[in-house]
Design a protein that fits this description.
The protein is built from eight helices and 18 strands. With 300 residues, it is of the alpha/beta class. α5 runs parallel beside α6 and α6 crosses α8. The protein binds flavin mononucleotide. Flavin mononucleotide (FMN) binds next to loops.
Length: 300
């Protein structure tokens, strides 16, 4: 059975990645998961310097998912290179670094420092607010998404995935613009903006009022967006959003994703990545599928 996938010239042993921000650098998972069995560890957003994140409370449960407004808390790229890269390199997995920034210059500062680091791929999170455009996320219009992709691609050494925001009316126009601007692949989807109110306190539950909705509740949106984008772009797609089981992962592959990532499920079940991988293998055995590639994009 062939599980390996090749994306932008990088060979991954299997199509199961971790969703950025739900697995950090993997340290907290080593008692549950052999990191060498994961296709790639996609680390939490890394910025040019440490970010404190948003005030608490910044996590809330919802039906079939959760809201978070963590605000990309991280220790910065220098700490990442010094502490996390050597840790992850002890395992036989690929390292994908999620880039966070408030300006194009900040993203480029991170990508530039990573030129000399032993990492395999970058993932540009364009859901970050662009402070020069009044805090509107880079990923919500095609021109801004293309501009940030072009500039960050130019300052990056490793292949660049661009992680799209689902908070748009026309995902296909953004996917095409980002492809034309030089992205080597797409990651879809990030969280959907949501809100929850505590009716007894008459207050929003999150200190930041709004946050990103993730988990099984968003899976149909992710499947729909991957399906629409895969029909229109030639670059590979990493599918994520609400994957809890192997069958959820197969849905993303059939919609057109070449690989998948497990996010919120890790917070509920720390062995989720391994269970999803086993579920994919079981499905392939059941239907006599010998190469994972034969499942990609089978839905017309
Ligand atoms: C607590 C938390 C933190 C996250 N942090 C990041 C991040 O740093 N960068 C990023 O691109 N996405 C981040 N995400 C989004 C996830 O990577 C993923 O795109 C989204 O949650 C949908 O997948 P899921 O339903 O499997 O979680 C975060 C999600 C959660 C729940």
């Amino acid at each position: 059975m062939k599980l390996s996938v090749s994306i932008a010239g990088v060979e991954f042993k299997n199509p199961v990645f971790t969703g950025s921000g739900t697995f950090n650098s993997g340290r907290e998972f080593v008692e549950f998961v052999d990191l060498s069995k994961i296709g790639a560890v996609v680390v939490k957003g890394v910025a040019n310097k440490p970010w404190l994140g948003n005030p608490s409370p910044r996590i809330a449960e919802t039906y079939g998912g959760m809201l978070n407004s963590v605000g990309l808390q991280n220790l910065g790229v220098d700490h990442f290179i010094k502490e996390d890269v050597p840790f992850l390199r002890r395992y036989d997995t690929k390292i994908v670094v999620n880039l966070a920034g408030k300006t194009i210059e900040e993203y480029c500062e991170v990508a530039d420092k990573l030129r000399y680091a032993d990492v395999d791929m970058l993932e540009l999170n364009i859901s970050c607010p662009n402070v020069k455009e009044g805090g509107v996320a880079f990923g919500v219009n095609a021109e801004m998404a293309a501009l940030v992709t072009r500039e960050v691609k130019a300052c990056s050494k490793q292949p660049l995935l661009v992680k799209l925001s689902p908070n748009v009316t026309d995902i296909v126009s953004i996917a095409k613009a980002v492809e034309a601007a030089g992205a080597d692949g797409l990651t879809m989807i990030n969280t959907l903006i949501g809100m929850k109110i505590d009716v007894h306190k008459r207050k929003p539950v999150l200190a930041n009022k709004m946050g990103g909705l993730s988990g099984p509740a968003i899976k149909p949106v992710g499947i729909r967006m991957v399906y629409q984008a895969a029909k229109e772009v030639g670059i590979p797609i990493i599918g994520l959003g609400g994957i809890m089981t192997g069958e959820d992962a197969i849905e993303y592959l059939m919609a057109g994703a070449s690989a998948i990532a497990v996010g919120t499920a890790n917070l509920v079940n720390p062995s989720a990545t391994m269970e999803v991988l086993q579920g994919i293998i079981d499905y392939m055995n059941l239907y006599g599928v010998t190469d994972i590639k034969d499942l990609v994009g089978v839905i017309a």
